[in-house]
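User: I'm putting together a teaching handout on how multi-component assemblies are represented. Below are the sequence lines for each component of a complex, exactly as they appear in our records. Could you produce the 3D structure of the whole assembly as structure tokens, so the students can see both representations side by side? Please keep the chain order the same as the input.
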Amino acid sequence: MTTATDVRDKELETVNGFEAETYYANLKYVPDFAWLRAMKNSAWNQYQSIPYPTRKTESFRFASFKRATDSGFCMNHKPQPQAIAERPQLINDVAGSLVLINDQVISCSISGELVTKGVLFMPLTMALEKHESLVRKYLEQSHRNLGADKFYALHQALSFNGVFLYVPNGVVIEKPFITYHWVQGEQASIFPKTIVVAGASSQVSYVDYFATVDSQQRAFVSSSALVYSEKNASVSRKYIQNLNNLSTIFHTENTVAERDSSPTTVGIHLGGHYARHENALQINGENVSARLYGLTVAAGKQEFDQRTLQIHAAPHSYSDLLYKNALLEKARTIFSGMIMVNEAAQQTDAYQSNRNLQLSPDSEANSLPGLEILANDVKCSHGATTGRLDESELFYMRARGIKPLEAKRLLIFGFFEQILEKIEDEDLSESLRNLVHQRFDSITH
Amino acid sequence: MSTETPEISIDRSKGDFHYDTVSYEYDAGVGLNTDTINYIADVKKEPQWVREFRHKALESFYRQPMPTHWATKDLETINFDKIRYYLSQGQKTTRSWDEVPQEMKETFERLGIPEQERAFLAGVEAQFDSEAVYSNMKEELSKLGVIFVGPNEGLSDHPDIFKKYFGKIIPTSDNKFAALNSAVFSGGSFIYVPKGVKVKQPLQAYFRINAESFGQFERTLIIADEGSEVTYMEGCTAPKFETATLHSAVVELMALKGAKIQYITVQNWSNNVFNLVTKRGVADEEAEVRWIDCNIGSRLTMKYPGVVLKGRKARGEVLSIALASDGQHQDTGAKMIHAADETTSNIIAKSISVGKGRSTYRGVVDIPRNLKGCKNNTECDALLINTNSRTDTYPAITLRGDQSSVQHEASVSKVSAEQIFYMQQRGLSEGAAMSLSVNGFINDLVREFPMEYSVELKRLIELEMEGSVG
Amino acid sequence: MSLEIKDLNVRIGENPILKNFSLTLPKGEVHAIMGPNGTGKSTLAKALAGHEDYKITSGEATLDGETIIGKEPDEISRAGLFLAFQYPSEIPGVTIANFIRAALQARMEKGSDFNAPAYYKELYSAMDKLGIDRKFTARSVNEGFSGGEKKRCEILQMMMLKPQYCILDETDSGLDIDALRIVSEGVNSMRGPDVGFLVITHYQRLLNYIQPDVVHVMWDGRIVRSGGKELALELEEKGYEWVKEAYANA
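Assistant: Of course. Below is the structure of the complete assembly, with chains in the same order as your input.
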């Protein structure tokens, strides 16, 4: 696998990105609304005019900018669903589930009871046809990207499907919704868009799961998500990225929190040759409690490039961010975080923390934890630590008769647990725990 | 008790005076071009290699863009064509205050320099605009072989050791302002401390800008030979003029095996000085470089003292205090480059933003190879006094491998209303309570300063806060 | 000569807390105020000390005939009123020695000299009395102190600043018997014809150590009953329920 990666780095330099041909061919999958076409055209023009990142691009600081490329990929509109028929489900007891291969709908289900309560859960294309004005409102919301603007423009231009989840005011849903995003075919690419709208005082849990059908076929994923948390809503959102190690990933996440709401997002990052994840939180109202968590297992020659932004635009709100990375082999991680507290956001309580666990002499962790504070009555702090396993803890475990490798494994799993325990759904947290542990064991054994 | 808009003024009266009567015999004129370089080199009768060094640096300065892609746009307001790059009376640097021209002597007397020299210093150099007017060191140190002169004398009298390190620690092209300094540098210090010599009392340089629309570009090189120790302190003031003044220094430190260099700065430029300084030290095996950096004055300071930890068990430290008031931006920080096993570095930065003042911390901690047993600890704390005060923190930390550790903590806080009420209940006025709290915030760092300087520093930071009450 | 409070009304935000509260504390006397939580005892203390969150809407409060209403907290302090806080603030980086010194200097005429040796002598003697380790002079005010240490530090400040009227706001809460005894001894050592004490407490226990001249019972923002020391014993025995019952509908 390692040699394949090496070859790829060289190839990437010589190939260009997506061609106009691809853009126009793809348009036939885009629902035929003039406003939507106009959006796409403008995004396509932007994509073409924005240069690729270079060594000097500040928003790609520390990233291997040469990996930040979309060269050599294509769009494959012909999925073969039988290939995933035998794949296990991440969770069984769900409120609704949607399966996409290469952004094409394979199946979609939602509990009938929720339909009667007015809950909408469907592919984005279908949502556009049935609820044009509602979906349009959210599609036209301006998203914030954290520097991968070229790739976000590409996503906007080529995206034709995704998920629309709408929970009306006051509806409380215990079970999670899940969407499986499969990528199939050599050099295939997907551009899914997730829109989650949690109405006032509603409660909802939603999972996006990304995977490649074939572990040897490299994929390109350029996705986005908008999580809209209305007044007093409680939203729990998970992003599970389990693509193969050859893939290139760009994801732009926007969480918008209105007053009294409490959004929580958990990201589990496992796959990719280069995986860029941008996570922006916008707090628009008072008394918001927002939490952003991330867990990354980085190995081989993987590079995880994570950029986060917590914007406090209203007073009396709380946000907490914790990103934990475990680094093995020759992996690299970049964590670049920013807390921005506006002049108006007095009595803000904001935290940002990045913890890197180095498990190899060749891994490299980069941390850029930033603060921009324009209000004085705030409690803000950030911390970044990078280090190895605690020797005294290892010794303590060995003194109890545990073998060194097992002791290490237990300590590393303990390191992950701080994130995994934030997942309130037991089935989901158990299956994600298994996913993370399996991923880890597959690297070390 | 509200802390909204206390009126704050910082005592800069001490440095705010200048002499119009000073007549400059040497003046490179306004603006910067190759003629300016040749003029400076001619006046200083420099050897060809220095002249070439200057010309190369000028090219590098032209080539590099203003770093506004990460730094403040305020840099764009500097008009390099309106600045005078070299001004001197053609005076000789003397070893006796009696021989210093009258206005200059008065200047330094008003600033208390001769008095401090008598009280606690091992040697003093006083620079007036582009050149030093006074330089003296205690007899016994000369006998031990300690050198404390300006760079002119350094390169003419001690060419071997000077050339070996000059421009090597901070290459000309390091950044736009290092290039500018390298092109037009004049004044500063050259210090060499021989093997095993421990200079007990500090050596001090005092930099004074007297002329308007002037740029001061001193250059300092300190070499501490094996096992030696030296403390260097620099102070600076300028009168407040209508137009902006530029100060752009380059300071290079070399601590050879087991040597210790402590470099202390109390920067109190007037509010219209752009203070853009490059400072870096190299620490060999078991050597220590320590920057104690206090920034109170200037309109914009950009300064990130660095240590390259080159030898095993080398230590680097930056202790930084910044105070940004209305119209000031203190953009300061530290760089720690670990290049050998078991090297350790420590950064403690505290900033206070008052009124519309802005303080920024930028840090680089780099442990780029899989080194063994390296450690960095960084703490940066910001105190915001008013609702419109601002602070930013931009650290960048890279660690490779599993044999080292880094730890970075930052916090932002304010003086709480309850704290002020508590102190007022004991009879302190709101202003006194605020001042005591602010001093409390930086107290543990101020203690690191030599006694004489910590007193000076506390006096400078003494905020006069007339309460908003009433 | 007294602390005179007459028909005082105090609000926090929009909520009225003190309602026509009246009390006279003559110099030389110790008065205790008891009452259940939420009746306004701490509000009284904070309002008298001039805290801006506690709005005095009407009424009068005077120290020896001079009004303290509308004055700054530090003016009230220098006029002779000391408040031992229920929750003393932490002041990082400011040592106890420097803090008390600053407070004493604030009371001095401009330009007069501070006698540092005499100050330290007195400070150490007070600390010894209160069982505070002399090393504490170099510690930041209240930072990292235990509850008991904070309260002793309050009494230390009181002894050093020599106020004419002292309000002790639940100084006894959370103290063990030893600490309570030490704190009380500190207070008792200051008793005399020139000082008046207002001791706010939940517990009769404190009054075993500090003998009050008068005990007041507070309910719903005012004093509902006053008596001698026996009133405290009665409260201890019967609890506050009867106060509530007797006055809730009154």
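A couple of points students might notice: The first strand of chain C starts at residue 2 and ends at 12. Chain C touches chain B through 30 residues (CB under 8 Å).
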